[in-house]
Amino acid sequence: MTGIVGRVRGALRGGPARVDPDRLITRLDAVRDFLTVVDGHLPDERLVPAHTLVERAGTRLALSRDHTLVALAGATGSGKSSLFNALARLDLSPVGVRRPTTGVAHACVWGQLDGATRLLDWVGVLPRHRFIRESALDGDDESGLHGLVLLDLPDFDSVQRTHRLEVDRLLGLVDQVVWVVDPQKYADRLVHTAYLREFHRHRDVTLVVLNQADRLPAAELPRVLDDLRRLLDADGLTGVPLLATTAVDPDGTTALRTALEDTVAERQAALRRLSGDIDTVVERLADLVGPEPAGTGPDDAATRGLTGALAGVAGVPAVTAAVEQAYRHRAAGATGWPVVRGWRRLRPDPLRRLHLPGPDAAGEKDPDEPAQSLLAATSVPDPTAAQRSALGLAVRAVADRAGAGLPAPWPAAVTSAARSRLGDVPDALDRAVAGTDLGVPQRPVWWRLVGGLQWLVTLTALAGLAWLVLGYALRALGLPELENPMVGEVPLPTLLLLGGLLAGLLLALVTRPVVRWAARRARVRAEKRLAASVAGVGEEYVLVPAREVLAAYAGAREALRTATRTT
């Protein structure tokens, strides 16, 4: 027996490396961070395994680290219940000819049961199916297995579906799995495709035993073990320990018992199982991240296109045209001939028609404009169907540029985020336009100077007119005529009248092109300010949500990189 133990431990020596608990927790936290940053961006069905892992791992690490949970799993007739009883050296699990025999999991605990109670509650083994392997008669014979919690699982190929569901549930919770196969069905396709092959990421906590080896002739046993090893290698389980056992011979479980003693002594099975679970989850999530994103958002061309489309929806062309018209209107009212200024005031101000008073350079409101909240709606024309369509295309272009090069389904997430707040954009644009200082002055200095000159020449003309009227009145009344001073051949009153009228006309003609030029500058200035306001709306309602998805992608990529096992 000593020779067998030495050979088994020699074969197991140089096995899997130890798992650092701190590194495992770091990887687990990275998976949790991944789930946090991708929440709301990726389909929930792709994240179910990761959520399950985080919940299961957190619970397992909080439970007893002094116990190792090992399951015997096998098909009908593989003799795992007999092997379970042989390891316990007691008849604990029912064995019979009628199949399936084991319908629920049975547990045997080596050592005190108290420490394993919470662990068995977690895996769902009923109290009546729990047994303790502790007897004074054993002395130290069982001390090597103290801390082992051995489960005898139902048959995974049972005709009863509930048995298989129970097996699948428990296989996701245990620390180590001992797969029990028999000489007749060791090559069964179900055990390899549905189970063994799925455990290729858990080679460190997987052990395969060929049970009922006593049924094979001594010369056939090595050939069967070699064939089983070939199948295991094809399943991706290269290096997994393969042992031959028999429950009818007291020495037939020595190799398996030795392997279990080493597993219990290492206290690494739970950590290795969780490490393998993380590997599996990371492998399934790997296609969700790819190369590092080229940038942090859409390019300048797409951004300019978005700003232009938003400007169209916001009615910026109509507002800037109104700014130019309002400048001309107000300039004409301030610099025009005083006689016709009153007539101009009867015409409505173009900006006021849009409920856009336009603050002056000092930031003060037009005193003639009633106070109103910037939240009040403007009268800017509603966008046309073509403008709405252009905005949709611009948002699509922004999302396509921002999500270029990202693996699926991230581009769709970027598009969804970019469009998520489009319903709020019209009101936001209206507030932005209403709150923009359009830079339309009320009375700049040069308007006042020209206006003063207009009043001066007008008063001059009125003085000449009054002088002439007074002279005509004196003559009509037969009173002595006034002696009008002469300027050359022209009487001074006539010169004042005609000169004032002509000077006012010339001043208006000279001022008109200046007003047109200044109005165009006011329009360009207003267009730039409105573009900045509209760009701010695009930034807040379209670009920021898109960049948040890109930031989530970068965070997910970094988290998954941290969660990847490094050797």
TrEMBL record:
It comes from the Bacteria. Residues 70-204 form the G domain. This is 50S ribosome-binding GTPase. InterPro entries: GTP-bd (IPR006073), GTPase_Era-like (IPR005662), P-loop_NTPase (IPR027417). The chain crosses the membrane at residues 453-474, 494-515. Keywords: Membrane, Transmembrane, Transmembrane helix. It comes from Micromonospora cathayae.
